[in-house]
Amino acid sequence: MTQRDRALGAFYGLALGDALGMPTQSFSRAEIAARFGRITTLESAPADQPVAPNMAKGSITDDTEQAILVAQLLIENQGCIPAALLAQRLIDWEAGMQAKGSQDLLGPSTKRAISLILAGHSPVEAGRYGTTNGAAMRITPVGIVSDIAHPECFIQAVVQACQVTHNTSLGIASAAAVAAVVSSGINGKKLEHALNAGTEMAYIAEHHGHWVAGARIGPRLRWARDASAHCNNDNVGDLLYDVIGTSVASQESVVAAFALAQRVASGQMNSVDAVCMAASIGGDTDTIAAVLGAMLGACEGLDAWPTALIEQVRDVNHLQLEPLVEALLALRNA
């Protein structure tokens, strides 16, 4: 596989996971089971979907849209993300969503940060309370453009992408872990190696940003990966939902994505089944599935995903990720 194939696998894997989890986001595990059984393909959102009511099957959410926003900023600014410009683009993005009548708006950490920016605080200070998964969900383009083989530059790129909204030890560590898996995959590393790199990067990245209380990302990744690898198939759902957790907290949703990726690395399930489980598990399903799809796609390439599903997501959302990926890779290899 080429770098291009792996990068497309990551970005389209993000979009596919996002779309699979779109109709189930914010529902409980029991409610998803009653309404959908188990997600095995793209589904439409019901009218009472709390975030995406009546959205068509295959529709993406903020996870993919904000990742595209970050990719565009990276390309426009030669691999950099100016803090003030990111803040303004996020403000503009939410305004556009509100104009369309969408309920899919900025997450709690991002919304608080933007409010502080509008009140006159600096972009760097605005992100000091961001601990949720918003930075991790949109970090995939940073993993594509930044090579983990140059760790200092890699960390700087992650911090730059996080500081406006998630300038905390938890926000940066979780985003760095995801970006490290993506970057390692694009370098041709197998999934187990990439997950190890992501786990180690969480330990390094937690020293950046404002320290906040909470279970550390690195140790939780190690524990969850081990627990998942040794969990039987009948109990893995309980592990994810009851013990790891599936909320917007980065210590839960990002860790849950790593736990499912470990099962793929251990040969206990394939990538499509893993992403479908993420979409079925309850809670922040679209983000868990999107992050998981990006990590798996980076290591396994575009062929990891069923062509028909990728084409449906591409057509429904008018996605053209190829030019973005090619431009990001050009910057990576410059």
From TrEMBL:
UniProt entry tagged with the keyword Hydrolase: yes
Stated family: Belongs to the ADP-ribosylglycohydrolase family.
Gene3D superfamilies linked: ADP-ribosylation/Crystallin J1
Name this protein carries in UniProt: ADP-ribosylglycohydrolase
Family matches, as Pfam families: ADP_ribosyl_GH (PF03747)
Keywords linked to the UniProt accession: Hydrolase
InterPro entries referenced in this protein's UniProt entry, alphabetically: ADP-ribosylglycohydrolase (IPR050792), Ribosyl_crysJ1 (IPR005502), Ribosyl_crysJ1_sf (IPR036705)
Upper lineage: Bacteria, Pseudomonadati, Pseudomonadota, Gammaproteobacteria, Pseudomonadales
Keyword Glycosyltransferase: no
Domain of life: Bacteria
